[in-house]
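Quick question, first post here. What does this chain look like in 3D?
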Amino acid sequence: MATREVRRRAAELRSAIEKANYQYYVLDAPTIADEQYDALLRELTELEAQHPELVTPDSSTQRVGAAPSERFRPVRHAAPMLSLANAFGEEELRAFDQRVRKALGRDAVDYVCELKIDGLAVNLTYVDGRFGEGATRGDGITGEDITANLRTIRAIPLTLREKVRGRIDVRGEVYLPLRSFEATNAERAARGEAPFANPRNAAAGAVRQADPRKTAARDLSVFMYSAAGLDVASQHELLARLRDLGFRVNGDWRLVCGADEVLAQIERLHEKRHALGYGTDGVVVKVDAVADQERLGYVARSPRWAVAYKFPAEQATTSVDDIKAYVGRTGVLTPVAWLAPVQVGGTTVRRATLHNLDEVRRLDVRVGDRVVIQRAGDVIPEVVRAEHELRERDLPEWRMPATCPECGGPVEHREGEVAYRCANPTCPAKQGQRIGHFVSRGAMDIEGAGPAFLTQVQEKGLVSDPADLFSLKLDEIVALERFADKSAQNLYDRIQAARTGRPLGRLLYALGIPQVGETTSEDLARWLADRLGPTATLGAIFERLRSASEEELQEIEGVGPVVARSIVSYFADEEERAFLDKLVEAGIEPVMPEPRIAPEESPFAGKTVVFTGTLERRSRDEAEDIVHRLGGKTSGSVSKKTDLVVAGPGAGSKLEKAEQLGIKVVDEETFERLASVHTAVR
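> Answer (accepted):
Ran it through. Tokens below.
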């Protein structure tokens, strides 16, 4: 049993260590040498080893050491982690400011400008001042429990510097400093692994490690920017309060008044972004007063009182060493420019997409050209233009290969399509990409099924399509290179666990249906849930999709003729039928989404609404979000299926067609009155 003196010394050590962490990781102003810090931590570790009853969850010795997790437990957020609407350029920023001022009924509004950190959004829950749980953003409603990994980040306090009673939820961004990003990629290259594309991907990968010790090995840090449960009157007060409680807050925020001052801050931050030491892709602009935020409220997915101003894509000039065609999971050949290495936005770029042959011809890019490239969204490098005036000689046009560069099969070009495709259904590149997509995080999320594993199982003939993964035996995985008994067992268990518990939307996305992305997959899943109920089997789901017509599918929000045709074609394909039947036989049991229930007596429930002309009270996206929340759908064109047209100033042909068809037309004032009765600020 520890004596009173030993307990007192342990408490002193914890306090000294946490103070040092705060000064080093939060204030960036260390007051003790590393050797002194190490000595304090060593002494505390020895004391707790001798007296295990002294170990507390908030002790610095407990930041690393939790058992590796096979899966991340789902965590439902106390309040949704909403996304922000984007503004690209001065005009859109001023339009946001105009909407805010009009809604608040005054000429000037105070805003807080904060850097938009390029990392992974997280929610930290504290109860009575102690860190209890941490989760990823996930889909905004439900995230993943990564508490053990977040505890390893020393910029996250395990105990607040001031005890706050009850629960508070603090949100922020976990990121990887650029110096650590470069070091991580150098290590991966030395091991023969593919480098991370950007610091955000590296941070996301680090924080989702199954073993917290691997997370601790990365130099992750965090900036916090919002909280629920703290009594403050403004955003700038909240940032100061968070810092006082021991959280790391980015110091480059400013309180300003009006759009002109906001734009000046954006320019200042844009100029210094590459000297910061961490990734940022824009500035978040928030209405400062909490009372104003509450008056402005929310649309379905984002607050009306904040906007993310995105920095323009950065450009650089380099030369094209070669152009090669890469085969994707649907067999489409994508031309990619191999470049002389060049720095763009703090990252070395060696490849840039040319999208398709039409784009190559439009840009007239040839091997040997000098080209201007940019990172679209600061992530995907692409060629913007070729500097034809710098050509010193005639350069031959690039041509799409007649045979697949991976399998030698014929390349086909269907009439009316831009894409060129490998016609070989067993092309290993197609199957490899397809299986990689199937196991990816946004799809079936089978951790550990990386490129090296997938290459081996395909080369050995164990897997020819994604469904074959569920037939793999444990001894077959053990026999692969770089797999020991434990790692093989872990991967085998993860594959088996993927048979159940995956949302239907993610399974549909995992299939890789051409033209069907994550959002459309979710919409399709809800449509199926409404028709088949919560207990539908996978076989029943596939049969329902096989029987769906293009016209029927176009009734789904966001599904147009091209997407509907692609879905029908996919489920009519005999080769795909065989693959889908194998998934059914494998016992895959997806989770059906909860049906969206429209508010009672909603004027838009089950109806199609078209907006035309200029909306003065809100943006078109915000108005459409309201219709969707209230059980309706929107369309970009007027037809016999349209139930209501909302016409603002400048309405033209859509209004004329609505009047010809006898469709009800209302002005924006009437729309707002209808919507206000049924919407509530959250």
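The chain has a mean pLDDT of 84.
The chain has six domains: 4-62, 86-310, 315-400, 428-498, 502-591, 608-678.
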